[in-house]
Write a structure and sequence with these properties.
- By secondary structure, the chain is an alpha/beta fold.
- The protein contains 13 helices and 16 strands.
- Strands 7-6-5-4-8-1-9-10-2-11 form a 10-stranded mixed sheet, sandwiched between helices.
- Helix 5 (about 165-185) packs parallel to helix 7.
- The chain is globular, with a radius of gyration of 21 Å.
- It starts with a helix and ends in a 7-residue tail after the last helix.
Length: about 475
């Protein structure tokens, strides 16, 4: 247990990087499964820009979202922490303003920070305690949730109407930010979170036409991914045009596994909302030409919580204060000095329900209200209570579905409403679709993994109860 806690409490260690601190561009899809990529074998999708980066950069083949739904995973990127630590249990739950965020830390090192696209971690009005601006972003044009064609977005608190495909709109906003930073020779963090391919799927006619042989709803779904691929390609090309690509980290992933019925998990069990691999495994790509000259494939388990400590190591930033982290610095894996992940990965879906965040309605309401000279102050839309610590949860009961990935092994812990616990163990290297339970066949491995998972769950519950914020 002590070793686990020391690992969780470890800060980002100094690392021997000879380049100047890079620009950082973090791009995320909304509901794109591991198999929803041509480079991962999809029989119909056209993703030429993603395919090119998969061939030329670093491809992660075992990359996991920190949670099987959107808001928690996005919170893990912002904090380096598993989302239950700060009460972001499911979609529509928020950050806590007490958290230390990635843009806040990078700003102390001189980075200018921008957020563009889906936020879903709090309000997008100026008065929200967990707006992008309140969470460390200098510039932001954001939506409270997913958004589609011709979206209304919040430009640092002011609702504005935009025209076009949502991914094109998001990319253009990010490109404008990148150009401005380039012109002013400022180092930057750009967080670009697309609203696609979340339902309801609404693709441009030109993008649907590429899939004319498919049913209409499939045309829209595939068309959204193709539009997102095009938008991502524009960002990547702009970095080259501005001569920024050499020393810019461009990192792409999705926020959870595949959508049921229409998405592709690449044959893994489960889908969005589930702790099986189909709900957690996501496509992920990275490039930083200044440090990584040759393409490579990373097969070790990684997760979105790793983005925070890895980016800090890349930027040579050692914060004076950090809460316990769940992510690890991936640079040793990326550079090849280590072959295995330094610590296991924990997951915990507590089954607490999500909170409705109807982005289109809320943004249209805000647009109309501000046109009348009004500023709505609905506490729900502002997420006014985001910093409130609720009643303490037990530190010996962990309802819902949790899991522990240690190398190729994955242990599941499933606790029902009565407190009864079922366990499942899988060897992901031989059984990636989690179909053959090996619990009884591993009498030595099981107790060690059970103890490690339970220790981790206890530490998460303590964080949830606010212990990390005590001086």
């Amino acid at each position: 247990m002590k070793a686990l806690l020391f690992a969780l409490l470890a800060t980002v260690s100094a690392h021997a990087i000879t380049t100047e601190p890079p620009n950082i561009v973090l791009v995320m899809a909304d509901d794109q499964g591991w198999g929803d990529m041509a480079y991962n074998g999809h029989p119909h999708l056209k993703t030429p820009n993603f395919d090119a980066m998969a061939k030329e950069g670093i491809r992660f083949d075992n990359f996991h979202a920190a949670a099987p739904v959107c808001s928690p995973t996005r919170g893990s990127v912002m904090t380096g922490r598993t989302p239950n630590r700060f009460g972001c249990f499911s979609w529509g739950h928020t950050l806590r303003p007490q958290e230390v965020t990635l843009p806040e830390v990078l700003k102390t090192a001189g980075y200018v920070t921008g957020h563009y696209g889906k936020w879903h971690l709090g309000g997008v009005q100026k008065a929200s305690p967990v707006s992008p601006g309140a969470s460390g972003f200098d510039h932001w044009v954001s939506a409270p949730n997913f958004f589609d064609l011709d979206p209304v977005l919040s430009d640092e608190g002011t609702a504005k109407q935009f025209k076009g495909d949502s991914s094109d709109v998001t990319a253009e906003l990010a490109i404008q930010f990148i150009r401005e930073r380039s012109n002013q020779k400022q180092r930057f963090l750009a967080v670009v979170w697309f609203g696609s391919p979340h339902s309801p799927h609404q693709a441009l006619e030109t993008d649907r036409a590429l899939y004319a042989d498919q049913p209409k709803k499939v045309q829209d779904f595939y068309g959204e991914i193709t539009a997102m691929d095009r938008a991502f390609g524009r960002i990547r090309q702009e970095l080259k045009t501005l001569d920024l690509d050499e020393n810019t980290v461009l990192w792409y992933c999705s926020d959870n596994g595949a959508l049921p019925k229409i998405g592709s998990s690449g044959g893994r069990r489960g889908n969005k909302g589930q702790v099986y691999e189909g709900g957690l495994l996501v496509p992920a790509l990275l490039e930083w030409p200044a440090l990584f000259k040759e393409p490579k494939v990373i097969t070790a388990p990684c997760t979105t919580s790793d983005i925070f400590p890895t980016v800090l190591a890349m930027a040579k930033v050692e914060p004076a204060k950090l809460h316990p982290l769940d992510g690890v610095n991936l640079l040793p894996l990326l550079e090849g000095t280590e072959k295995k992940r330094s610590q296991p990965i924990g997951f915990w879906d507590s089954k607490i329900k999500g909170k409705p965040t109807p982005s289109e309605k809320w943004m249209n309401d805000l647009l109309g209200a501000q046109a009348r000279g009004e500023e709505p102050n609905d506490p729900e839309r502002l997420a006014a209570d985001a910093g409130v610590i609720g009643e303490p949860v037990p530190i010996n009961k962990f309802p819902g579905h949790s899991a522990w990935i240690d190398g190729n092994w994955k242990l599941h812990r499933i606790e029902d409403d009565k407190g009864e616990v079922d366990w499942e163990l899988y060897d992901l290297s031989a059984d990636p679709d989690e179909s053959r339970v090996l619990f009884a066949e591993q009498p030595e491995r099981v107790p060690q993994m059970q103890e490690a998972l339970q220790d981790w769950l206890q530490s998460v519950a303590k964080s949830l109860n606010g212990e990390d914020y005590k001086e």
